[in-house]
Design goal:
By secondary structure, this protein is mainly alpha-helical. The chain is built from 26 helices and eight strands.
Amino acid sequence: MGHKVDAFTPVWPHADLFVEQDLFIKKSDAEIKAEKELIKTNAPVFFELNNTERDAKLKALEKNKSSHAALEANIKAVFDTVYSRGVIEVPDLDMQNKTMFVSHGNYAEPAVYFDFYTVQTAAAYIESILAKEKTPINFIDYLAINYRQNRQQTEFYINSHNAQISVYKNVIRSGQMLVRQGEALTNNKRFLINRYFLQRNNQPAQSPLKFAAKWSLTFILCLVLLVFLAFFRTSIFGQNKQVAFLFLLLLLSVFGTYFFYRYGLMIYALPFALVPILVRVFFDGRTALFTYLMIVLCCSFFMPDKLEFIFLELLPGIGTLFSVAEMRKRQQILNAAALVFVFYVVIFVSYQYGFGTAQTIKKLSSYLPFVISSVLVLLAYPLIFLTERFFGFISDFKLLELCDLNHPLLRKLSKEVPGTFQHSLQVANLAEEAIFYIGGNSLLVRAGAMYHDIGKLENPYFFTENQANGFSPHQEIEPLESAKIIINHVIEGIELAKKHKLPEPIIDFIRTHHGTTSVTYFLHLFKQQGSHSASEENQFRYPGPIPFSKETAVLMIADGVEAASRSLKKHDAMAINDLVDNIIDYKINHNQFINSDITFKDITTIKKIFKKRLMNIYHARIEYPSQN
């Protein structure tokens, strides 16, 4: 009788599976014990004919019978009738419904228990026949059991059948077909397939050459990923944590796939699409795509149909990159999960129709792993948080939180030093728009701009934007002391940022927004006072380092341009144009951008954007030449 197969019963989608080695499925101790109990329960009851007791009782009856000849004849006829049918030993109640055999020498034949007399039924029969005869003889004393239970023979039967119990539940010889393509995967069939792959994977029968070849391919894929980082993502390659994170994702993916493969679990239920999401959140899209490609290729080694696996995992992963290209809303992860499921279904149906088993398309169970995998994509929420905490990375979600004006540091900045706060807002607007046009992380540069001057909280009135009524505390101290106070706002800003546990990428903006430039105004005053040395001039220089990315370079320019624009006496187009050009040329001449990947084309674009924005801020108008 076949198993019931419905739309929820999956089928084997791959080619016919032939076992490469004998497959022996052992029974458990409980299964063997249950079989023995079943044999004991169903074992027949054996009886043996023995007339020794009958003959002794008949002789005793012969001595005590009545002297009436008629009674003697009746007694003999009745007892002969009873013994010809047989008087049987009464077995246990649970044995009366079992199969019964009666032994006659070396052979036994089946019998029915109710075809025999018991001592009680035989006595009742004799009394009913001899009821009219008045005799003092108690005939029941002379009844003998001539069919007794042979317990030894029953025990022999049980032991012989127990000895025939096989310790193996299933035996499939090498070369035999285990499952046919399109065959329904019943629970028993799944068990056999899982045990076969488990047995095969546990066998260390691989040749050294085959083992070395597999690991060589894995090593090559890892090396390709490393070379990609070294040539095209030098900023990532130089950071041990970032490289470790990418290879940790690769190792977890490979070992997760191996574990599911070894124990016959649903590999397609693994959320592979999490990898490009996690990489894209902390890095760029190209790094996410390349890393994911290497991971999919490594994991494909465990799959019977490698091409199907690559199609089913690579394309949904690429699809998620489109949905999280700009990770600004948490709903994007939910959209990514839905998109992954749609990709899975479309690719699965197309592949099975074109190259696989069309029967699997009609099975609802075929789509269960895809549902599980898509739902598990939502694990990106906690995983992003844990990655930020463990590796110190910063995601767009974190940047959005940092840009919230209710952040304790920003609230303190707006209340205690509103001038610096407004300056930071203007710098953030300028830098964000410039990065938008030249390419880069606009959210990162905005967050960096909001915190780049938090060091001014220590001595706010020594900075122009916070001075009222034209009074400056610098008028009462020496230029060198003034320079130290101005320069220290970088160091104090770093300390304050660390105290409030700001991410390291935000602190980098505080470190680099002045680079290694000098406090030129106070240096000029110092030179006017008389003799000076090179070592004294160095005390007017910011400690650095210089910017090392587009974002930090743009912030340096925006900070300098916005601060200098406040000191303009006339905010017309000509003045703003000269100001922007002079500030940027000064930074270039002092080698502030040699470590950042910013180009002259980018700088030209930045100049145009800053000039336009500053003219909008100060309502400057372009002066056209007069017409004669």
